[in-house]
Specification:
Elements (H helix, E strand, L loop, with lengths): L2 H20 L8 H19 L5 H25 L5 H26 L10 H16 L1
Helix pairs in contact: 1-2, 1-4, 2-3, 2-4, 3-4
Length: about 140
C-alpha cells in the first residue's frame, strides 16, 4: 500500500471509529455517518491515484461497505446493550472495516481490469482456523 493511501485510509478509519464511538447509544445511527465516510474514502483513493475504479471493483466496494454496515448493526444490537462494550465494539468494527476497505481499493487500483476478490466470511473463518491449528502443533 502506498504511503499516501495508507495515511488517507488511517485518517478516514480514525474518523469513522470516533464518530461510531460517540453515536453508539442510538443503535444503527453510526451507519448514517460511517457509510458515507467509507464511500468518500473509496472516491478519495481513486482521485488520489488519478484513476477511476472499474465497475467490477465498485461492485465489491458496495458489498464491503454494506456488509460492514450489517456487521456493525448486528454487533451494535447485541453488544450495544453492555455499557462501553457496545461503544468499543462499534468503534473497532468501524475502524477495521474502513481499514480493509482502503486496503482493498488500493489493491483494486493497482489492477483495475482484474480487481482482487473481496474478503469473504469463509476467508475469515479459514484464517481463524489456521491461527488456532498452527498454534496447537
Amino acid at each position: 500500500m502506498r504511503l499516501g493511501a495508507r495515511l488517507t485510509t488511517h485518517a478516514f478509519s480514525a474518523g469513522a471509529a470516533g464518530i461510531s464511538f460517540v453515536v453508539q447509544p442510538v443503535p444503527g445511527s453510526d451507519q448514517l455517518f460511517v457509510i458515507p465516510i467509507q464511500y468518500l474514502l473509496a472516491a478519495s483513493l481513486a482521485k488520489e491515484r488519478g484513476a477511476p475504479l472499474s465497475k467490477a471493483a465498485w461492485s465489491q466496494v458496495h458489498q464491503l461497505i454494506w456488509g460492514g454496515g450489517a456487521l456493525r448493526l448486528m454487533l451494535g444490537l447485541t453488544l450495544g446493550l453492555i455499557p462501553l462494550a457496545g461503544a468499543f465494539t462499534n468503534a473497532m468494527t468501524a475502524f477495521l472495516t474502513t481499514e480493509y476497505l482502503g486496503y482493498y481499493v488500493d489493491r483494486a487500483l493497482d489492477n483495475p481490469d482484474n480487481p482482487p476478490p473481496a474478503l469473504s466470511i469463509q476467508d475469515v473463518l479459514d484464517a481463524i482456523t489456521s491461527l488456532f491449528t498452527g498454534r496447537a502443533r
